């Protein structure tokens, strides 16, 4: 019985894949405060130019620098597992595979881009990075990468997760980073929110505002901001996951994939696995590609495709994306990494093109799936990852009903060993489902009412 498919270091993909090169319709540009497309130099106070070049690139393949690969070898290539034991429990004819991203030192897919971003910043002469973190996985990943590359790291962690997951802060400190709860009193953005909402659980939108402010107001000029998801270059760095997976499936003679699944907060782990398969779909393959979000934060399934800011204080350019509105404060569910008001523009564009089909799932179904996974495959999933697993189970059951030998692959984006409070609450029946009420959605959408609309949305074509 083959449980793991491994690649040697010399089989690692040496280029990232850029979906922007293959999308049937070109991406709509981010807009500045005047409503005109932004230029790369407008982003220069926030990001180093070498990453801005990747952000706007339409090259299909981008070389991965050798020094980045040398750091990634600490855990990559990541194994592809066949979920034999979950399949058996479900009595499904489907063959289920997962990329195990939980084996990275911080415990998720996030260091794939953290290492790349820290490396490019260092090349550009930057000495300090600032960032936000939701569940704490991204903050830990950037702390880890900065520690290996000798950069300073400052992390604004969403208040509710800061309280739910205290050991994440300790992990970040172990890698030498400084982590504070957001909103904090250290920034204007944080103080403004605290004045209005002193008891707020925080949000990724607020933490992003704080981290950008901390980078651009640093008088040394040697600080930049780093984002763990959403942007094109972040998704690009994650494609190593799907590119490895394809090599691994080929190695075991698995010729056709039917279903590709990943949970989606900002969209990076989903895209990392899925975009190389989206390319196949564009070229004619029949694949069902499913990003999964929580019903409490239904960006892809219920929010309009709009222009919106990536953060609450409206410091970022307007991005063309599905958005619940930048003032949205998500309910404090345990999947902290899935509590974001927007989604990556590349994911949004793939949705409107009909290349991927998003789905929303409740918290309790996700925890039930996570527990079944832990009791069969063994690894305790992160609450975000559980959303992907619950969808896999839905698809495996469907394959059984249809008596079809489907091949399903999903991204095991992270382990849940720092998220056990959520499990504790699940076992003691303290968790509830919280599908976002329609009136709350409509209220939150008011913050984007007067912003420009993407061309295609205006024409009603999408
Ligand atoms: C384990 C895990 N999975 C998924 C996500 C969601 O982020 P993204 O959609 O960018 O992959 C996060 C974010 O924190 C995470 O920690």
Word description of this protein:
This protein is an alpha/beta fold. It has a domain at 4-9 and 63-107 and 233-459: Rossmann fold (3-Layer(aba) Sandwich), CATH 3.40.50.1100. The chain is built from 19 helices and 15 strands. α8 (188-196) packs antiparallel against α9 (204-216). It is globular. The structure holds pyridoxal-5'-phosphate. Pyridoxal-5'-phosphate binds at residues 108, 134-135, 137-138, 229, 263-270, 337-338, 382, 384-385, 413-414.
Write the layout of secondary structure elements.
Blueprint: E1 4-5, E2 15-17, H1 49-55, E3 61-63, H2 66-72, E4 80-82, H3 84-90, E5 95-100, H4 111-123, E6 128-133, H5 137-149, E7 152-158, H6 159-164, H7 166-174, E8 178-182, H8 188-196, H9 204-216, E9 223-225, H10 232-238, H11 240-251, E10 259-263, H12 268-282, E11 288-294, H13 299-302, E12 305-309, E13 318-322, H14 345-352, E14 359-361, H15 363-376, H16 383-401, E15 407-412, H17 420-427, H18 438-445, H19 455-459
Helix pairs in contact: 1-10, 2-4, 4-5, 4-10, 5-7, 8-9, 10-12, 11-12, 15-16
Features:
single chain, 462 residues, alpha/beta, Rossmann fold, seven-stranded mixed sheet, four-stranded parallel sheet, 19 helices, 15 strands, binds pyridoxal-5'-phosphate
Note the main sheet.
7 strands, mixed
* Distance between the amino and carboxyl termini: 46 Å
Secondary-structure class: alpha/beta
CATH architecture of the domain at 4-9 and 63-107 and 233-459: 3-Layer(aba) Sandwich
Bound molecules: pyridoxal-5'-phosphate
Q: What is the CA-atom radius of gyration, in angstroms?
A: 20 Å
Strand content: 5-15%
Q: Quick one: how many beta strands?
A: 15
């Amino acid at each position: 019985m083959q449980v793991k498919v491994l690649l040697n270091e010399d089989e690692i993909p040496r280029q990232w894949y850029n979906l922007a090169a293959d999308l049937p319709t070109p991406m709509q540009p981010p807009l500045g405060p005047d409503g005109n497309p932004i230029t790369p130099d407008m982003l220069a106070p926030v990001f180093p130019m070498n990453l801005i070049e990747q952000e706007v690139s339409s090259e299909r393949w981008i070389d991965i620098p050798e020094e980045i690969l040398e750091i990634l070898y600490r855990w990559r290539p990541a194994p592809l597992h066949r979920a034999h034991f979950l399949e058996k429990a479900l009595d499904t004819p489907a063959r289920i595979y997962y990329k195990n991203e939980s084996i990275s030192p911080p415990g998720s897919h996030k260091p794939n881009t953290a290492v790349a971003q820290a490396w490019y910043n260092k090349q550009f002469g930057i000495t300090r990075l600032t960032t936000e973190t939701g569940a704490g996985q991204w903050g830990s990943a950037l702390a880890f990468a900065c520690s290996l590359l000798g950069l300073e790291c400052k992390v604004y962690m969403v208040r509710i997760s800061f309280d739910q997951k205290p050991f994440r802060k300790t992990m970040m400190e172990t890698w030498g980073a400084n982590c504070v709860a957001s909103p904090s009193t250290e920034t204007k953005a944080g103080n403004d929110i605290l004045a209005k909402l002193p008891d707020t659980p925080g949000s990724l939108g607020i933490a992003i505002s704080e981290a950008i402010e901390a980078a651009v107001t640093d008088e040394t000029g040697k600080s930049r901001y780093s984002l763990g998801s959403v942007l094109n270059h972040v998704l690009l760095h994650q494609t190593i996951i799907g590119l490895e997976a394809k090599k691994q499936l080929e190695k075991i003679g698995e010729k056709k994939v039917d279903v590709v699944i990943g949970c989606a907060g900002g969209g990076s782990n989903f895209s990392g696995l899925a975009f190389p398969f989206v390319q196949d779909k564009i070229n004619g393959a029949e694949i069902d590609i499913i990003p999964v979000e929580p019903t409490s934060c239904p960006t892809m399934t219920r929010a309009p495709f709009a222009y919106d800011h990536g953060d609450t204080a409206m410091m970022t350019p307007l991005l063309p994306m599905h958005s619940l509105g930048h003032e949205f404060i998500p309910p404090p569910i345990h999947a902290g990494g899935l509590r974001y008001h927007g989604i990556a523009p590349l994911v949004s564009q793939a949705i409107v093109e009909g290349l991927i089909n998003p789905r929303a799932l409740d918290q309790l179904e996700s925890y039930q799936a996570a527990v079944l996974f832990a009791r069969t495959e063994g690894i305790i999933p992160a609450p975000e990852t559980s959303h992907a697993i619950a969808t896999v189970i839905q698809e495996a059951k469907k394959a059984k009903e249809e008596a079809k030998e489907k091949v399903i692959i999903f991204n095991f984006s992270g382990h849940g060993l720092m998220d056990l409070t959520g499990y504790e609450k699940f076992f003691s029946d303290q968790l509830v489902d919280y599908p976002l009420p329609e009136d709350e959605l409509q209220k939150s959408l008011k913050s984007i009412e007067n912003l420009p609309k993407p061309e295609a949305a205006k024409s009603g074509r999408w």
